[in-house]
């Protein structure tokens, strides 16, 4: 099947759902060319996406691809993480992570997450307006994941800046992303060496010590995992908080339901690429072995066959969204993301009940990425 260009534009970044709706209805497994030229298959129906997330014939290991995927490139020391591993390696590392990333550890963060949220909002007291991305949704997850992992406070702003440059480099500077990756790699090696020499009660120290049946993380696995946890613990949560707040500002009087907000506006509407290990039928179309498959949860979460009134915000509806994935790659940080979303949104709504948008919603700027659903800024009048 010939690929067609994915219609990405400012209009798409602002509201991709009409495109998703059309694909889901007309071509639920569609071959498209991404803006970087990569030919991929987009899968958009809920039933197909959910089934494929648990299908072992779809691999996340890039060695099973046919070489046409041009996605983000990382050095081996940052690439040996859970997002690039199938079982049994994935199973082994996930068990090691689970020893350190426990529900009890996450829940123990609740008072500290609340303190961070309160302190950020204290700094806004007395101001007429604020940017709830730059002033609140951005710094809160950075502080939380950094404290969990044991990143010194003095380094957190730098890490956020490096991450932003890596994901969306400045126009006209093709080497900026590679420089940011190199800087992050060097920083993580130095940080892990410090934790190894002087262990503390943080997650990185626990991961260094974690072992399962005499096994432990290799150096590359440890560095890659630290990178993944920092990146995922920051990037997606920032966008979930920002878009969640926007959704509520556009739907005044609607109770905050983190699960429904995640269904309605997933921060990562397109999940990690996968490669069939054999020819596979998807929605009546044969996808050849090794070609790239992208599962579009932004479309699946608004499938009317799975959710009644999917384009409406309905707090309290039964969960079942796919924003955290499904199957063995279900997001290991989901409990932390839920905790942060609950506290971040609930606190700002209590502190500023009269808050409203400072500009018309159609003037808001969105991140120029089809993989990420996030606001550049969220200007509000605090009221």
Task: Output the CATH class name.
Answer: Mainly Alpha
Widest beta sheet: strand line-up: 1-2-3-9
Overall pLDDT level: 90
Number of domains: 1
Query: Rg from C-alpha positions?
Result: 21 Å
At the fourth level of CATH, the homologous superfamily is Cytochrome P450
Helix content: 40-55%
The counted number of beta strands is 11
Structural classification: alpha+beta
Q: What can be said about the biggest beta sheet? A: 4 strands, mixed
Which regions contain 5 or more consecutive residues with pLDDT less than 50?
none
Q: What characteristic shape results from the CA principal axes?
A: globular
Distance between the termini: 54 Å
CATH fold label: Cytochrome p450
Reported CATH architecture: Orthogonal Bundle
Topology order in helix (H) and strand (E) letters: EHHEEHEHHHHEHHHHHHHEEEEHHEE
**How many DSSP H or I helices?**
16
Question: Roughly what fraction of the amino acids lie in strands?
Answer: 5-15%
Describe the overall structure.
The protein has one domain (4-381): Cytochrome P450 (Cytochrome p450, Orthogonal Bundle). It starts with a strand and ends with a strand. The strands form 4 sheets. The chain has a 4-stranded mixed beta sheet with strand order 1-2-3-9, with helices on one face. It has a 3-stranded antiparallel beta sheet with strand order 5-11-10. Strands 4-6 form a two-stranded antiparallel sheet. The longest helix is centred in the middle third of the chain and has 32 residues, at 219-250. The protein is of the alpha+beta class and 383 residues long. The model has no long low-confidence stretch (mean pLDDT 90). The protein is built from 16 helices and 11 strands. GO terms for molecular function: heme binding; iron ion binding; monooxygenase activity; oxidoreductase activity, acting on paired donors, with incorporation or reduction of molecular oxygen. This is Cytochrome P450. Keywords: Heme, Iron, Metal-binding, Monooxygenase, Oxidoreductase. Belongs to the cytochrome P450 family.
